[in-house]
Design goal:
It holds the Pfam family CopG_antitoxin. InterPro entries: CopG_antitoxin (IPR022148), Ribbon_hlx_hlx (IPR010985). The chain is mostly helical. The protein has 2 domains: 34 residues, no CATH class; 47 residues. The protein has 3 helices and no strands. It is elongated.
Amino acid sequence: MRNKTKPMPVLRSDAEAEQFVAESDLSEYDLSGFQPMRFEIEPKSAALNMRLPASLLEAVKAKAKSKGIPYTRYVRMILESDVARRS
């Protein structure tokens, strides 16, 4: 028997999403198109200003664009990842 999946419903609020997850059998839905989401909760209270070669900045911007995020967030993610890594 062929495995059929239901399309994901449009959820217009957090309450609708919570209810959907609580009451639905998620194995009935195709979740393969989902992508991880990263939420930035901590307030930004400091700034960083640096000079770097234009070619590097353009490469960073291109990489961030390919990931669908602003380049400043991409730079922050790289810094956070490196700091979190064990040396």
